[in-house]
Amino acid sequence: MPRFVFNDVGGGLNQGQPPQTIQDREWVECKNFFPFATKLRRRGGLRRLNDSVYSERLTGVLAFRPTSVDVQTLVGGRTTIAELDGNSILALPPQVGFSISDSLKPWTAFEYKNIAYWLRQASNALVRSDGTYYGPSGIAAPATAPTLVDGAAGDIPAANFYGVYTFYNAATNVESNPSPASGVLAHAGSKKINWSGIGVSTNSQVGARRLYRTLPNQTGEYYFVAQIDNNFDTTFTGDNVLVQDLGEAVSFSNGEPPVGLHFGTVWKERFFASDKVDIFYSELGRIECFDEDSIISVFPDDGHEIRAVYAYGDRLVIGKTNKVHYLVGTDPDNFGLLTLSDRHGCAAHHSMQSAEGLLFWLGLDNFYRSDGNSVVGIASVKLQTILAALDPTTLEFAVATVFPGLNWYVCVIPGVATVVYNYKTDAWTEFTHGAELQGVFDHFTDDFVQDMYATDDAGYVYRFADSTYNYDDDGATAGGAISAPLVSKPQEGGNPAAYTVMSRVYLAMQAYAEEITLSWLHEATVLNTRTVSLNYPERWKTYALSTRQGAKADVRLKILYTGATPIEIEGWAVDGDSVGRLSTRPH
After folding, report:
1. Domain count, the chain
2. What span, in angstroms and rounded, lies between the C-alpha atoms of 502 and 410?
3. Per residue in 553-565, pLDDT tens?
4. Per-residue DSSP letter, 250
5. Cβ-count burial of 378 within 10 angstroms (0-12 exposed, 13-18 middle, 19+ buried)?
6. How far is 466 from 562, CA to CA, in rounded Å?
7. Are 438 and 475 in contact (CB under 8 A)?
8. What number of other Cβ atoms are within 10 A of residue 337's Cβ?
9. Rounded mean pLDDT of 121-146?
10. Which of 270, 423, 301 is nearest to 361 (CA)?
11. Exposed e or buried b per residue across 421-456, where buried means at least 16 C-beta atoms within 10 angstroms of its C-beta
12. Whole-angstrom Cα distance, residue 396 to residue 308?
């Protein structure tokens, strides 16, 4: 009786293909095992982190570390920003008069200059938080003009002068556009200048005001005079700054972030974001400050939406639903727009991730991978069929992250699937959970060790694929078993014209104090099944499992594991033979 041995089982999932095109190392069903080199490992558990449910669906997570102290885990809900504090989620207070519009879309969250930023469709443009509150980004320009008058004896020569002032955040270097200009000061000469009527901002991030004055007998351009390091004084006495000592010119490009933005990213010290039609970019080093003319059109007449903006090395990748483009250059004067793929578009901003020089994203019909030059589709036929049948708005909710420690690209399409791609071995698997996951997010510990967090529809946060936890928590229910099935491609006994008879199954693995269920399947019919122990010292464990009473042309091996221990399968083998069909036997 021939023995068929498979020492490499790490091929992952390959669905929807004819049997002859499926490799022996691949599986037509592979759930909650993940390929690792030539082996399969049962994944870690889904550990719930908050004991009590939060009041909203959670669609964003940010590991926020503004200082050298512990990481603060912030989460984004439908209308709030909150903090995971111990085992509880506590909503942060909003700035007075500010609220976040309701939306189910996933959040874009990132940290820049010790401030956490959040962006999402219908969320009042860019939201900022210092970890204690949240409010709007950007600083509105002062509404009232200052007043300039002659002061005490000084050195400023006689001339006409005008003045303006701005609101300023010294910690982040964010500054407003200038106030209206003062009335003309016909300066008598040999005197200082006194300022009054300097407005106070209601924006909590404003901690200073900056004063600017024209050159003698000029209008329209203003140069730095002094800074008032508080937000309450309304006067400044004794301006005695001569022309040669004036500072930089005031900027008229520090407008507030545009409304209607959906997603964005920081690239080359600017914030780039999109309203799905155009790309908007901030001032250099001031990601809350936008010039009204800082807009890049990306083939606006092609009838397709922008779905992703992603910083990829020296490129800013712009994914549209029909094509993927990228921006190069160092400043607006030399930005160049090129095309990465004119055949494969992008469906979801949050699906676009990169690791080790590779770029991944979800298209409308496939997952794609690029090295920056070529683009290839990487999903199985069945997964491609599922994606192609979905409403494109469903795909827009997809959220992904990368986990280089295991060479993973992980993508959650809410309500559809959670898939994991090993980009080193080009192998897929699927993770299933009782919780209705809304996304998976990059996170890291206080010691800078990367892990992954996930959120669900019910208001819970989880540690995803936690290698120290052997169960799945499902909302309020903890400690559920992880069901991990594998199904092989159809097996034949060596003669395609005959029935297949299998007699034994062998598993190569360590000894575990656990059980596993083995079954032979023909299409949807179970021919034989038994639950066996894994607690044997031999590397190759032998189990009798015959199909002689139900011989078929082809059979598939199903392995189902529901134990707690994260087992590892190194290989499998089977004893099989063929028998003649009744119509071909001699009479």
Report:
1. 2
2. 37
3. 788 999 999 999 9
4. P
5. middle
6. 17
7. no
8. 16
9. 90
10. 423
11. bbbbbebbbbbebebebbbbbbbeeeeeeebbbbbb
12. 10
Q: Across residues 249-269, what is the average pLDDT? A: 95
d(CA 441, CA 536): 39
Mean pLDDT of all residues in 226-233: 97
d(C-alpha 267, C-alpha 281), whole Å: 10
HSE of 522 in the Cβ direction (CA atoms, 13 Å)?
A: 15
Greater confidence (492 vs 173) lies with 173
Of 200, 216, 245, the residue that ends a domain is: 245
Quick one: pLDDT band at residue 371, thresholds 50, 70, 90? very high
Domain end position, chosen among 245, 270, 285: 245
Give the integer Cα–Cα distance in Å for 331 and 98.
Answer: 33
Return the SS3 of 510.
coil
In a domain, 392, yes or no: no
224 is written with which tokens?
């730095």
Distance CA 529, CA 502 (A): 12
Place of tokens 């078993």: 481
Q: For residues 554 and 548, what is the distance between their CA atoms, to the nearest angstrom? A: 12
Q: What is the CATH number of the domain that holds 507?
A: 2.60.120
CA 374-315-368 angle, 5° bins: 35
For residue 394, the surrounding DSSP H or E stretch is helix 392-395
Percentage with pLDDT > 70 across the chain: 96
Distance of CA 563 to the CA centre of its chain: 31
Residue 203 counted as domain residue: yes
Kindly tell me the number of DSSP H helices and DSSP E strands found in the chain: 2, 52
In a domain, 273, yes or no: no
Distance CA 340, CA 361 (A): 13
pLDDT at 260 over 50: yes
CB 161 within 8 A of CB 241: no
Q: Residue 298 contacts by C-beta under 8 Å, 6 or more apart in sequence?
A: 278, 279, 306, 318, 320, 325, 337
> For 151-155, 255-259, 578-582, which range has the lowest pLDDT when averaged over its residues?
578-582
Q: Using the 8-state DSSP alphabet, how is residue 387 labeled? A: H
Token digits of residue 570: 């190194």
AA identity, residue 65? R
Tokens of 266: 């920081």
Query: At 101, is the secondary structure helix, strand, or coil?
Result: coil
The residue segments making up the domain with residue 530 are 3-43+484-584
In a domain, 34, yes or no: yes
CA-to-CA separations, 45 to 243, 404, 481, 530, in angstroms, rounded: 67, 18, 9, 26
pTM score over 0.90: yes
pLDDT at 167: 98
pLDDT of residue 483: 97
- 397 φ, ψ (degrees, to nearest 5): -85, -5
Instruction: For residue 164, list its beta bridge partners.
Output: 212
Tokens of 113: 């200059």
The full DSSP string for 175-211 is EPPPPPPPPPEEE-SSEEEEEE-------TT--EEEE
Q: What is the DSSP letter of 290?
A: B
Strand boundaries in 180-320, DSSP class E: 185-187, 191-196, 208-213, 223-228, 236-239, 263-267, 270-274, 278-281, 295-297, 306-312, 315-320
